[in-house]
Amino acid sequence: MRVISHTLSFGIDLSQAQTSSAFAVDQGFAAAIQIGYTATNLSGTFKLQASLDEGNPNAASEAARASLVANWTDIATGGATIPSATINGVSGNSTVLLRLDTLPYTFIRVVWTPTAGTGTATSIQAVEKAE
Fold this sequence. Notes:
This protein has 131 residues and is mainly β. It has 1 helix and 10 strands.
């Protein structure tokens, strides 16, 4: 088994809606995404979106490979968006961990939708398990 690490984004303003860079998961079978942030009375939702688009398979970098992805869909099971994490009135330093036990997708990204407060995503890291 191999473990593939991805750095998606950091230094993102969480007082407004944000979308991370995408990462390819077409070689993996499971993944986890950890979001570190600092906040002042922050509320909102982190969720994962996936795409089955091929992107640019011959690109030299992951960012270039994902640059042609056009179709994104919230990852859902049985009508409920999974996984997601809702933050309510958090202040200080904190983290969120989102886990995917299966990866029938080509690309994944993190989407943040705020409802109140301010904050900064200090890091968004992903680990993909592959054979």
